[in-house]
Amino acid sequence: MSDLSDLLLDTVSRYAGWSGPIIGLLAFLESLVIIGLFVPAIATMIAVGGLIGAGIIEPAPVCACAVVGAILGDWTSYALGRFIGPAVYRHPWLSGHQLGFARARLFFRRYGFLSIIIGRFLGPIRSTVPLVAGVVKMPQGQFQTANILSALLWVPALLLPGYFAGGQLARFDLEAEQLILIAVGLCIVPMLLGWAAIRFMSKPRIKARQTSTQ
């Protein structure tokens, strides 16, 4: 997986003018059901953020294309689930991921609209929640609202750590290992926020259950 990430990063560096479409395609594939599990988008986009911070590639095309790619990827997964319905879970290509779909269904049932936003930041269910939303026929307007919001949050969250490590923090003459640690730390922040949001959203349900049993 690291070899593929290195290849993608090398391609972006060599063809800086095409960095936007390349990253857009990467974000699209990363958001597709199952396929996204095998695409090293997170590591690559953090590294691309470093290239932006170093002034090697322009930020606007990369950000715009990444957002559009992420939206289209989730939309495709949603449309697939909506068109095929529950039978999609039994498709031969997806038969080895039943546990993942079970978790995604439970997560969607519990958080609904927020599951689309938070799920974008949670690796194990990131590419399966939109499919589940389509299977249960979540209203198109609600899904697209959550889809667009999540993409607008997800792209900067991945690019900013590399951006600061690659450009803004370099002026402090930090060692490479220190820059990497800072980048990783910045990347973990959105994950922690997602975890905190899940914990926060689960408290009212827990309290409601305790009240009903008394």
Key descriptive features of the protein:
mainly alpha; disordered C terminus; single chain; 214 residues; 75% helix
Q: Briefly, what is this?
A:
The protein has 214 residues and is an all-alpha fold. The protein has helices at residues 2-14, 19-31, 41-53, 59-84, 98-111, 113-119, 129-135, 140-168, 176-213. Residues 204-214 have low confidence and may be disordered.
Tally of separate domains = 1
Shape: elongated
* Proportion of beta-strand residues: under 5%
Low-confidence stretches: 204-214
Strand tally: 0
Number of helices: 9
Termini separation (Å)? 52 Å
The whole-angstrom Rg is 19 Å
The portion of residues assigned to helices is over 70%
- Determine the mean pLDDT: 75
**Main β-sheet: number of strands, strand sense, barrel status?**
none
Order of helices and strands: HHHHHHHHH
User: What structural class is derived from the secondary structure elements?
Assistant: mainly alpha
Walkthrough of the structure:
By secondary structure, the chain is mainly alpha-helical. The protein has one domain (2-213). It has helices at residues 2-14, 19-31, 41-53, 59-84, 98-111, 113-119, 129-135, 140-168, 176-213. Helix 4 packs parallel to helix 7 and helix 6 packs parallel to helix 8. 38% of the residues are buried.
